Amino acid sequence: MSIDTSNTTTSSVLDQYAIKSQGSDVTKTQDLGKDQFLKLLVAQMNNQNPLEPQGNGEFIAQLAQFSTVEGITNLNTSVNSIMTGAQSAQALQASSLVGRTVILDTNTAMVDTSKTATEPFKGGINLTQSSDNVWVNVYNTSGQQVSRVNLGQQSSGLISFTWDGTDANGGALPPGAYKFEAQANVGGESVAFATSLPANVESVTLGQNGGEMMLNLTGKGSIALSKVQVVGQ
Fold it and tell me: Boundaries of each FlgD Tudor-like domain copy (predicted)?
């Protein structure tokens, strides 16, 4: 008479890992790792019923499942390592940006007019068409035009302009936020063009879960790093 000991032996091995089966309810107090999986597989092979041995296909299926789980585990480890490295690089980049000036596509900027007499405010215009007359209107926070920068004839391309922080009569204007409106005479009509202006980086917010780094700029709030055209001094 043969005695099937597979259930008894497998149960004893399972008991080592606190796994109890009652009908469809399964309670697990400890995760079953790859080493424990292999021990259970070997125990199952050693204690199978010799009169009704388990088919090779079933063992192959279990091994294939084990290989898949192990591959996913290794992949997760590699991805976590890459993310950790990326976050470290992002943190290093962030620390180097604080206190520096960035250039971005905008029409407003904070201008310290107490320094513009010796260090004029600098901006840029993306002039997509050549013009015989280009100018930049400057407005205060009330929407009042306070100055105008005449640039004359210009070829298409990115051109620069400077403003000394004074009004139309040469009087000094107070520090603060100003709006810059670039226009050019094209075909007898006034056409508006985009301006690129500087802003100071006060702090940086690191992206979470792969999100983009955000720059906190003076007078402009939070701006994504991808919006920055140039990082200055």
Answer: 90-229
Residues 13 and 61 in one domain: yes
Report the distance separating Cα 222 and Cα 119, nearest Å. 26
Residues 31-89: tens digit of each pLDDT: 555 666 667 667 766 776 666 665 555 656 666 666 676 677 777 777 776 666 666 66
Helix ranges restricted to H, 98-137: none
Q: Is residue 233 part of a domain?
A: no
Q: pLDDT of 157-203, one tens digit each?
A: 999 999 999 998 999 999 999 999 999 999 889 999 999 999 999 98
- Domain extent, residue 38, equals 6-90
CATH number of the domain enclosing 131: 2.60.40.4070
Residue type for 84, please?
Answer: T
Cα–Cα distance measured from residue 180 to residue 182, given in angstroms and rounded to the nearest whole number: 6
Domain count across the chain: 2
Q: Are 137 and 190 in contact (CB under 8 A)?
A: no
